[in-house]
Design goal:
Blueprint: H1 2-17, E1 24-29, E2 32-35, E3 40-49, E4 53-61, E5 79-85, E6 90-98, E7 109-116, E8 122-132, E9 137-141, H2 143-147, E10 152-153, H3 180-184, E11 190-193, E12 200-205, H4 217-220, E13 246-253, E14 256-264
Antiparallel strand pairs: 1-3, 2-9, 3-6, 4-5, 4-7, 7-8, 8-9, 10-12, 11-12, 13-14
């Protein structure tokens, strides 16, 4: 009887006396593009929970250096949840943040989201990437969605005020014409292409027929001269053919891989074993 009594007491503590917390596992956003700069940015967030219980969290934003929000202060909650969940459930919440449509960043900006417990501790974080396009739309991307775009973004420079953006028609925005297999294929010639006023360039096939007259200064500034030295281990081959190894340069940022350019080696120092 004594053992049964303690079992009943333990069950009461779990189900009645103490509210079990549904553990937040991951926080992400829904990629979307909306027309017009209305002064209100809508973000849809997805919270994945990993255990049964009550999901009691507040969604907050961390400061962004380039996107100045009009309704932001430290510790403000933009959305709240307090509901019974089971492991594997996904909670979908939408909230709006205000900005000045006459003062938007020219670069890709990131908003750091955090799910906060009632005691103020952070359960998990997520990222929303925001881009105000020069053709009057607003893009919101998740990390995964941004990685699928094959765009190489200009680095933000908050000390420089760029000129007013030029009007760009969506049909004139360059699009990557390479498949994933071609992007990874070292034998497919590639180059970066952009247009003035756009904050990114895209890799396209280099067929040698484009004079690049419509590429922006930012896109052309991505080329540089330098020397890369290192060691390449290869199987047994004709040592007279070691030169001409193709080297690709990729930018890795928070798990996002962007192709920057490529070149071929011109000299090699061979060491016999």
């Amino acid at each position: 009887m004594k053992h049964l009594y303690w079992l009943v007491m333990c069950c009461w503590l779990v189900s009645g006396g103490v509210k079990a917390q549904g553990t937040a596992v991951a926080l992400s956003v829904v990629s979307r593009e909306t027309a017009g700069r209305t002064g209100e940015l809508v973000v849809e967030a997805l919270l994945l929970v990993g255990s049964n219980g009550v999901a009691d969290y507040r969604l907050q934003l961390e400061p962004s250096p380039g996107l100045h929000l009009l309704n932001h202060w430290e510790g403000r909650s933009y959305a709240e949840m307090d509901q019974q969940v089971q492991a594997g459930d996904t909670i979908r919440l939408a909230f709006a943040v205000a900005y000045n449509p006459a003062n938007v960043p020219h670069y890709l900006e990131r908003l750091q989201l955090r799910a906060v417990r009632p005691d103020g501790t952070v359960a998990t974080r997520g990222t929303a990437f925001v881009y105000f396009t020069p053709y009057n739309t607003v893009e919101v991307w998740s990390s995964h969605g941004l990685d699928q775009l094959n765009r190489v973004w200009d680095a933000p420079d908050y000390t420089w005020t760029p000129p007013p953006p030029e009007e760009i028609k969506p049909g004139n925005v360059p699009v990557c014409n390479l498949t994933e297999a071609e992007l990874a294929d070292e034998n497919v010639p590639k180059k970066m292409k952009s247009v003035p006023g756009l904050a990114y360039a895209v890799p396209v096939r280099d067929d040698g027929t484009d004079d690049d007259s419509n590429e922006s200064d930012a896109a052309r500034a991505r080329t540089w001269n330098g020397t890369i030295s290192g060691r390449v281990d290869v199987p047994a081959i004709n040592l007279n053919a070691v030169t001409g190894i193709r080297v690709e340069v990729w930018d890795k940022d928070d798990g996002l891989d962007d192709f920057l350019g490529s070149g071929s080696t011109t000299t090699a120092i061979l060491a016999s074993r």
